[in-house]
Design goal:
The complex is a heterodimer of chains A (109) and B (118). With 109 residues, chain A is mostly beta strands. Helices cover 0% and strands 52% of the residues of chain A. Chain A is built from no helices and nine strands. In chain B, strands 2, 4, 5, 6, 9, 10 and 11 form a seven-stranded mixed sheet that branches. A four-stranded antiparallel sheet of chain B has the order 1-3-8-7, with no helix packed on it. Classes of the chains: A mainly beta (109), B mainly beta (118).
Chain lengths: 109, 118
């Protein structure tokens, strides 16, 4: 079973800065079946990225995903105030389970 | 507009049962895979179950296998989660979510709270 480890646990940055969030898998994820979600307090998660690097519908281009195999990255090029939230990665390869990482909290510095 | 509305959450005693429902609208429900994902208070997301568009393929997380049953009624545009032998650790907000690609979920309901406590 694949385990996803996200780092850092908390990232403190200021609006306008660049954010780099990491998701590492315990074994290689086939065909880059990795997604990223954003969740704000009291809200349901929002899909940002699927297939490691494809933006979901309506997601601003300041969000980008990269990586393959076991190492994946979500980058937010210039932080907007509304980007401060918790971010989760999820693997969705051909076989279940489809776990999430434990999350990275992006907070305002 | 895509809408997913969960219902059925409640306070239940350990060992009890509960059935969650998710009413879908705004899209062709029968064409989409669906997932249930839960979130314990103050904790992260946990994928718990997947069902294919026809209902013929079903998967569960080990934490709920043998206790929970996912199902769907495409004629009623509805998704269900039957939960038995509930435990304290099943306390969570339960989300139904539309599958964009398998377990990747592009639309989510607002969730329904299940509390397991004596």
């Amino acid at each position: 079973e694949i385990v996803l480890t996200q780092s850092p646990g908390t990232l403190s940055l200021s609006p306008g800065e660049r954010a780099t969030l990491s998701c590492r898998a315990s074994q290689s994820i086939s065909t880059s079946y990795l997604a990223w979600y954003q969740q704000k307090p009291g809200q349901a998660p929002r899909l940002l990225i699927y297939g490691a690097s494809s933006r979901a519908t309506g997601i601003p281009d300041r969000f980008s995903g990269s990586g393959s195999g076991t190492d994946f990255t979500l980058t937010i090029s210039r932080l907007e105030p509304e980007d401060f939230a918790v971010y989760y990665c999820q693997q969705y390869g051909s076989s279940p389970p489809y776990p999430f990482g434990q999350g990275t909290k992006l907070e305002i510095k | 507009e895509v809408q997913l509305v969960e219902s059925g959450g409640a306070l239940v005693q350990p060992g009890g049962s509960l059935r969650l429902s998710c009413a879908a609208s705004g899209f062709s429900f029968s064409s989409y895979e669906m997932n249930w994902v839960r979130q314990a208070p103050g904790k992260g997301l946990e994928w718990i179950s997947y069902i294919s568009s026809s209902g013929s393929i079903i998967y569960y997380a080990d934490s709920v296998k043998g206790r929970f049953t996912i199902s769907r009624d495409n004629a009623k545009n509805s998704l269900y989660l039957q939960m038995h032998s509930l435990r304290d650790e099943d306390t969570a907000v339960y989300y139904c979510a539309r599958g964009y690609v398998a377990a990747v979920s592009d639309y989510w309901g607002q969730g329904t709270l299940v509390t397991v406590s004596s």
